[in-house]
Amino acid sequence: MKQNFPIKSELKAKRLKWGAPQNFISWAYMKELRENDKTRKIYDINPYIEVYQFRDNLFGLFTQNCDGAGDVWMFLIVGPEKAMLIDTCFGLGDLKGLCNMLSGGKELVVVNTHGHVDHAYGNCRFEKVYCHEYEVPILQEQNDTMFDYLFDANGNNIWLEFDKADLPTYRPYEIVPVKDGYTFDLGKGYEVELCWLGGHAPGNSGFLDKTNRIFFPGDDLCSDVSGVASGPRPGMPNGQYMNLETFRGNLAKVVARIDEIDYVFPSHFIINVESGVLESELEACDEILADPQSFDYRAMSISPKGGEPSERFFKYIKGFSVLAYKMEGVYAPKE
Ligand SMILES: [Fe+2]
User: Fold this and answer.
1) How many domains does the chain have?
2) CA dist., res. 25 & res. 253, Å (int)
3) What is the 58 CA–ligand 1 centroid distance (Å)?
4) CA of 188 to the centre of ligand 1 (A)
5) Is 267:113 a contact under the CB 8 Å cutoff?
6) Which range is least confidently modeled, 23-27, 125-129, 277-281?
7) What is the CATH number of the domain that holds 35?
8) What is the pLDDT of residues 284-324, one digit of tens each?
9) What is the 267 CA–ligand 1 centroid distance (Å)?
10) CB 246 within 8 A of CB 205
């Protein structure tokens, strides 16, 4: 398929190569936002991040994916006494300094939606990171060779041209496991609640900012592809939670609280989506669980890290995008 036209950008890093071509609607949205949004700023302290102001106290930190997969959002909520950074991406450039500048130096609480490379490799820039307990083993696998796959045998960038010196140096940091429903207090009763979802990753969790009435679902909802059922991944710690049935049960609990949520901010591409999209995603899950053969189309997919292509099935999330699943990832494994 023809490659997407580049988006004009002042970011320091430049795209060399993409993995799979990206969804046209997401690309058009990102092109419009990134080229014309009036709040967009790039600060000298971190030339790898476009900063957008989406609410009085909510910043979207857009950064390019260092491998060939889709570009990524981090979010910074500035509460009355503390700020919260949701995800750390690859940690390119001075991420901590940027957050401190935007928050006015408030204490920073760092959380992960899940432990995948594009959301958590920047954790080592911080002292302490919170995540759902099922993601802990994934974060514990991080090490000082984790960035090697971004470079070829000659040490050159493969997917994204950036200065290697701007990557963080891996060092151990404190990982704090928390359970479903754990609530962070950013001061003066400003609460953000972790809502465990599973699906995309064993501990993929959403964060509910109760004041802004915004839900951040990580990668369990995406305007490109919502890949929520690629499990069960035998051998991977907690891999049994990467299935549609588990995700559906958890999503239903969030949908039951839909009167607390106005907007949804996924970790890739289109954000500020009205919360009814969660009901639409739940409906897609229910149709697949009722009949896994009710997919709209099927396609082969390849991971940016290589390996054998695998077949995935796609079901429309009405009014939004598609949900991807594997047949073996539909139902929760039997105990
Ligand atoms: Fe991701």
Assistant:
1) 1
2) 29
3) 20
4) 32
5) yes
6) 23-27
7) 3.60.15.10
8) 999 999 999 999 999 988 766 667 888 999 999 999 999 99
9) 7
10) no
